[in-house]
Amino acid sequence: MAVAATAAHADLTDEIQIYDDSINKKGQIGLELHLNTTLDGRRTPDWPGEIPPNHGMRATMEWSYGLTDSLEAGLYLPFLRDASGTTYFAGPRFRIKWMAFKPAEGAAGMFAGLNLEVGDVNERLEQGRPAMELRPIIGYRNEDWLVSFNPVVGKTFRSRYVSSKPDFSPGIKIARNIGGDNFVGIEYYDEMGAFGDFKPAREQNQQLFLAFDIGSVAVPFNLGIGRGLNGASDKWTVKAIFEVPL
Question: Most buried by CB count within 10 Å: which residue of 22, 74, 151, 183?
């Protein structure tokens, strides 16, 4: 997260996504491929050895397995190619997603859940190892609309460079059905900094994406074009998430 050296920092944008009520059924295996690139972004390292995001390309395989109909386990395997053409394995991340309640398939209603993620990412990409993320999932869906809010709390450990306080990174998605299982909408991401020491708005990493969710094809996908909203944010980012059929 683009912040000063006295606060937590993470720039491995391997997953640009707002979580909703989607979850595997018991025994179901899933695979998503996350791809994104920073077309125009920060070029200067924020700490010695850091890989800045400009012209970086990220590719992540996300495996998932339904433990029950409301509990899902996941494994991320992220790779990064920097502006010089060097490729890195960023390090594994593990997650558990729990949906406390959600509407029945095809029905309308509120949903709520929680995603817990832990990882040990390459120190050239994130300050503080290991790291933990707690992502509440709160939203509503009906035939025409999907709204989902993720007030994400992150914590890093074992680093003299980062704050001992957790970070707050809220995100929200508002999408409209445009026919079939296809949606268009916006996704907003903000990295506000450490609790009790939020940065001024002009220094927060704020990005707004125009996002398309195309579900009426053999390989459903999410495609987004993001624009930074201030001088502290990467100017242009493109991302895609493909649901690979198994």
Answer: 183
pLDDT tens for each residue of 146-197:
999 999 999 887 655 566 789 999 999 999 999 999 999 999 999 999 998 9
Tokens of 113: 């859940």
Residues ≥6 apart with Cβ < 8 Å to 12: 58, 78, 80, 90, 121, 122, 125, 126
Confirm if 115 and 135 have CB atoms less than 8 A apart: yes
Specify the DSSP class assigned to residue 33: E
- Whole-number Å distance between alpha carbons of 136 and 97: 10
First-to-last C-alpha distance (Å) of the chain:
34
Residue 138 CB neighbours (<10 A): 17
Identify whether the C-beta of residue 238 lies closer than 8 Å to the C-beta of residue 209: no
What's the rounded Cα separation, in Å, for the pair 185 and 14?
A: 21
Give the Cα separation of 242 and 34 in Å (integer).
Answer: 7
Kindly report the three-state secondary structure assignment for every residue of 50-105. Answer: CCCCCCCEEEEEEEEEECCCCEEEEEEEEEEECCCCCEEECCCEEEEEEEEECCCC
CATH placement of domain 9-243: 2.40.160.40
**Integer CA distances (angstroms), 207 to 24, 46, 47, 52, 134, in order:** 29, 19, 22, 17, 20
